Amino acid sequence: MRIKIKWISGIVxxxxxxxxxxxxxxxxxDKKAEAKxxxxxxxxxxxxxxxxxxxxxGGMSETALDEVVVQAESKVTGSKTDxxxxxxxxxxxxxxxxxxxxxxxxxxxxxxxNVSGVNPQLGGxxxxxxxxxxRGLNMRFLRDGFSDGAAFNGYMRTMTDVxxxxxxxxxxxxxxxxxxxxxxxxxTTKKPLDHAHASVEGMTGFWNMYRLxxxxxxxxxxxxxxxxxxxxYYKTDGYRGLSREIIEVLPxxxxxxxxxxxxxxxxDFRNIKTRPDNYGILFDKSNNLVSGSPSRTYYSPFNTAExxxxxxxxxxxxxxxxxxKLRSTLIYDDRSIAMVRxxxxxxxxxxxxxxxxxxxQNDKIQTVLHQNEAVFKFNxxxxxxxxxxxxxxxxxxxxxxxxxxxPLAAIGLSNPYPTESDYKSLTKTQNFDRxxxxxxxxxxxxxxxxxxxxxxxxxxxxxxxxxxxxxGIGTQPGNNTVQERTISMARDLVSxxxxxxxxxxxxxxxxxxxxxxxxxxxxxxxPYLYTNPETSSQIELxxxxxxxxxxxxxxxxxxxTTRANYAFTDTNGNVNFLGGxxxxxxxxxxxxxxxxAGLWIIFNSALMDSKVITESTGTGVNAVDLHGKTPQxxxxxAGSLWAxxxxxxxxxxxxxxxxxxxxxxxxxxxIKNLMQVPGYVVADAVLxxxxxxxQAQVNFRxxxxxxxxxxxxxxxxxxxxxxxxxxxxxxxx
Length: 733
Fold this sequence. Notes:
This protein is mainly beta. It contains 6 helices and 39 strands.
């Protein structure tokens, strides 16, 4: 381990320092080759640089983007440079805006089904936030390449200002620091355009659902000041009463103070009200889902969650010459959440549900992030180098308090009718009232080198120094008594990655990569701060194809991903005992693109074998060694197909139609593999009509009215929505 780190840092960091002194001219780059993006492309074609918008969209031209880097690096999640994804030894899958619009993917749950190996999980979301696994392991969210909060007790994301969504598979700590082992979902937002524009769209559907959104902007001050405002309002009573109300105001301003330097100021305001449900439909004592209507509810009627998010960012990007680019970012993120939800539950043999409770939690999280990155390009003989170096400082402050209230009245298993209207008269138990603080100082470097047009390589290393503390009332390792205590730690964490790309033909590249990550798992859901880092590793082999003149992209990957030293309950009853280990082996295929005019296809499929290596549960005679068990909510196979065709000429020009199925095999609810949620196939369809300035669309969800369950809860499974019709329209100037 030490030898590997020393070797990588000994090569990468000196190259980064030397890059500023090297000034050999770069050979002309094939723009067409640079445009390859992996398994997600834009319908406008692939002749633009990564991250560019076409002149028809009002974005900057290809020439302008070559000189101004306002957007040039926004879509390169896997490398943080302008090296094409085709030349990056990792799986990075992009879902473009065309798919988001055609599927009317209002939220993240609708979007992620387009990417292989991504599955929703309720454990970190409780019905109030987005939470997923990638390749069977935990993940994190990024927004324009920067941290966007934790998945645990996070928030429900919409597509209001989303340009595209990228999924980086596997550990990304070498670039992003505290990165979960499964990977990251990066949201690329809409940037200001260089011409005046305005659009408004409306949507309505079942369960009193409606949405209004606007997107307006104009250049000012001789086109040097570009402005854009996205805003949205979304409300629904929700299937099974799981209501949502989301208000978003998202302005962005870019000041191009010279042709090669720009400053972008971005502000996100969100107010989100939802009703949590972490029960779904329960299992009975025979470990079967209770028969009957899936629209029944077991959650308390007073369950609620309200979140307010204020996020301000300032991003400077500059291109000093052909060999040197600089990016500097400052982000302040302020989030608060107040929620009331249920937690514990017991299903009895007499068809009753007891041990119900109410859990009240209030979190306030404030984060400051400052990051500086430099990209150097230079040649040493026949070798072409792209070197990234970065320094980062992050301060996170988390105030969190939780109380439990018991007991709520027993209800029937087959005919539940929760009637409680309040919890304050119940017996209160304090769980914790804590202040968690993290200070992380980081330095990292990455070298990407082209030995020839056939062979490219990448290596990167990151050092994170973490100082953290957890002060206040709560429990601590080895002692489950709630009391005043202080937990503190300081760690130096090293993460690294390396990979190789071999491109024998212009349309095909083979790649292999290995990465290791280390991070401190700190969030407001855990009972206390874990002072030892979680670790992760991945080995991946794959092939990327670019077909039909770069209009269709494929990504085939074989991988082994491992997560270790996470918390579980051991056979001695030690809750949150560090030392768990699990592994996922799998193969994935993603295909996306527009091979002929008017036709769009996006397909994904994943076959995964996920197993627990080290974990146990229970005590005494109830102790169970879980080695070889399948972790919760990990399907053996899953995937989806979506295809649409838009008529290109004649009387019906602009008319389009399509759809496709989503499939998923059975998953386990519990770590003992006793309760299983059945697999399903659900089909959706769309009919749309598009003109230059307006469009109308009808989406049909679950057209066969299939009864299915999207993900497990702690003692049950969450039913998917039955047949639904969504009608939408959009007009623009």
